[in-house]
Design goal:
Elements (H helix, E strand, L loop, with lengths): L5 H9 L16 H18 L4 H21 L2 H10 L4 H7 L4 E2 L2 E2 L3
Antiparallel strand pairs: 1-2
Helix pairs in contact: 2-3
């Protein structure tokens, strides 16, 4: 099931989680919401590299919203796999999203 995601497969084996995979909810939203989120991410990404300054500024503000929205919508294993594939540590993520506040506290994990 996780042949394409060796890091996640390793974590699942380390945690002895194999017996729970069929009961695991991987997305915490419906398919339509997931597609809309993906479309927003693509638009944000395009605008971040745009030559239109107002679009770039708006996209820079949306990055934090996109990060929180996607983070809430996927299982921790998926977030962990993405960080691993991008070679990002928790410190890297905290630095990238240092302006994100959760319940009044800055993201520090």
């Amino acid at each position: 099931m996780f042949d394409k995601f060796p890091h996640t497969q390793k974590v699942i084996q380390e945690l002895e989680y194999e017996n729970y995979l069929d009961q695991t909810e991987w997305l915490f939203c419906d398919d339509e919401t997931a597609l809309l989120s993906l479309a927003k991410l693509v638009k944000t990404s395009e605008q971040l590299t745009s030559s239109n300054i107002p679009d770039r500024l708006a996209a820079k503000e949306r990055v934090n919203e996109d990060y929180l929205e996607v983070g809430r919508s996927i299982h921790a294993f998926a977030r962990n796999e993405a960080r691993h594939q991008l070679s990002l540590s928790n410190d890297n993520v905290a630095q990238l999203f240092s302006s994100v506040e959760i319940s009044g506290a800055r993201f520090t994990n």
